[in-house]
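Lecture 7, part B: from sequences to assemblies.

Below are the input chains for today's worked example.
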Amino acid sequence: MQAWIRRNSLAALPLAVGVGLLLWIAPIRAERPAAHEGISADDGLVPARPALARTGGPYVRSSEAWGKAFHEATRRHVVSPRVEKILATTYGEVLNWTRSGRTLEVGLDREVYLVTVRGPVIVGGGRHPLSSFSRTYYVYDAPTGRLIEWGATILPEPEGSQSEFRR
Amino acid sequence: MPARFASITSGNRVALVVALALLALAPAALGRPAVTVSPPPTTPTMTVTGTATPSRTPTRTFTSTPVSPTRTPTPSTPTQTATITRTPTITQTPTRTSSPTATPTATTSPTRTTSPTATTTRTATVTTTPTRTATTTQTTTRTSTPAPSATPTETPTVEPPSPTPTPTPEPCTFPLDPKSIPPEVDRGTLRRWYGIGVTQATPPNLWLGGAVQWQNQNMSVPQGVPDAFIAEVLWVTTQNVRPCFVEVGDSVWNDDAGNLQQGYYWAENDATGYHARDLQVQVVRPPLGQFQRYKIAQRRGAYRVFIGGIQVGVSQQPGDTLHVETGVESNNVGSRILAPVGFQTFQIYDENGRWVPWPTQNQDVEAPATWQWSWPTATNGFN
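Predicted structure of the full complex, as structure tokens:
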């Protein structure tokens, strides 16, 4: 019996400490993930980083973006379209000009061509009012030449003059 | 009993006492966690929860701010209370009034009216136009009034009301310039055909967005028509008016080489114009017949656009949502949806930040587009 008591009294020490610690930590661990899950589930999955980030080149030539923008403007019935400006810039700089929303696929440092085209155009119709604009713009992904964004706007001509990326 | 424990060494006695003390203290410690270890971890956890709640409050405050300026011009129209629905339609009028193109634009509207369901909305458009015309008439009356009363007494009486009729342009509207209509373009090509479901908020209880799911199906547009498109879309109006909106959808068009292209996009009509963004990278298209989720919701002061649970865009537009609409839109009668498209999970994001089913289910349909409610689901097509 003495041996039993000795054995159990010694065993009780780590057991008591262990049980105490587990009971102590359990509620803390349960609360933390709950708070995070609540936030992420509410907002949906936000991409950790944009799919299109800065590449450093190579890029399609600005003349290709020029031609595509002119063709796109014609397709959208811009009257007598005239390419006004082509800028080799970043998507972040484009957003500074448009002062509008952004696509999260494209990083702010992604290299793009911003092409503005002058010429009257009608946008809208149907359930939305017909609107007239005198300037449309087209944003091309510089590494691939893909059209990322286009719009018709009352914004003034964008500032800048660099039409090719420096290497 | 004491005799039996006599043989326990003093060291063992100490160990036994410590063990018993710990066992006795453990539950006591659980009862008051803040005393020893708990305060540091517990406090941050509570802070997270606390932060989440107030974050919604500023969003509301921010959002509601622009409501008042938008609403301000509304009272100028006397019968506005009854015709809340038509408030956004009024927006179109300044555009038409200012330009002589008003007549042809009106011609477009009746064409639309042919669709039985669309009648409600289209009629509103027609009704709005005379309202504006009446405003013009008032101006004429005033002009004639001072004429006979060339006597100085009459002049000051006329002056006060003159600033009143000055129409405040509604946000996201831009005057229609006749020069912007290309001569080679028939006005008919500016037409659109819809097969959509519609729901609308009842002011002052506006919403914060909407969501829906629809099936992925093949669509097509006629070959050789460069500007033809067909799209399944979710529209959410913003800034408390119809002309401002954010849309997300799945579109089909002909590319420069005449090849059929299909892709997700999101776009918006805001204070600076119309802006459209093509999406080709992050969202996975489900197999044919499977549902894709689309959502536009205002959170933390911005409208956030989701496809398939992935946030693809952010719009900075302020204000609340008056309309949520979803369905097919095309600018060419030759467009096609190759199989019926099922819709489900129609939701609005209400003023309390909860996703709830659409409170009303209306529609706007014009053949060859179709829309059939079977609430809580629906089907559309373009044949």
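Note for the exam: Residues 62-153 of chain A form one domain. Keep this in mind when comparing with the next example.
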